[in-house]
Inverse folding.
């Protein structure tokens, strides 16, 4: 039985993704992300703690990362940890731990892109269907896309 090896990271791409094609038709894409954590010290003063993680994506996901993983872009990575071990020239064992991406969600590039992304929730209230988004309420009859309980357009 496999033991649990799963994580979710949300942060920003540190530098443009680097992709290679080790075999024809199969891509590997590597990029680092920075994850910020805001906390307080023992004196109650707020401070920011930044952690950096190397992420790898394979196959079709690597192709998407090559186009979308630009410096500063926000994203959420769902994946697992992987450890590579090798012996260096002196015969010492070396090790590196990185994240293997299994799912990646990108945040909108700009505020305008975010505003153009409409999230709808269909609600039945007093004999009418209503669609809710972050900007407005509308009568269901004007928005036929809301045919599911929750849909993203």
């Amino acid at each position: 039985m496999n033991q649990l090896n799963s994580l979710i990271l949300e942060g920003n791409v540190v530098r443009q993704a680097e992709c290679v094609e080790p075999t024809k038709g199969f891509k590997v894409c590597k990029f680092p992300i920075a994850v910020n954590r805001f906390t307080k010290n023992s004196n109650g003063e707020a401070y920011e703690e930044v952690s950096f993680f190397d992420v790898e994506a394979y196959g079709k996901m690597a192709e998407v990362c090559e186009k979308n993983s630009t410096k500063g872009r926000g994203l959420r990575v769902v994946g697992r940890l992987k450890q590579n071990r090798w012996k260096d020239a002196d015969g010492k064992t070396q090790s590196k731990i990185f994240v293997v991406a299994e799912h990646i969600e990108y945040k909108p590039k700009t505020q305008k892109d975010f505003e153009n992304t409409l999230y709808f929730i269909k609600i039945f209230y007093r004999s009418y269907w209503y669609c809710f988004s972050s900007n407005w309420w509308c009568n269901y009859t004007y928005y036929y896309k809301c045919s599911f309980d929750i849909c993203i357009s």
Confidence is low (pLDDT under 50) at residues 118-123, 133-153.
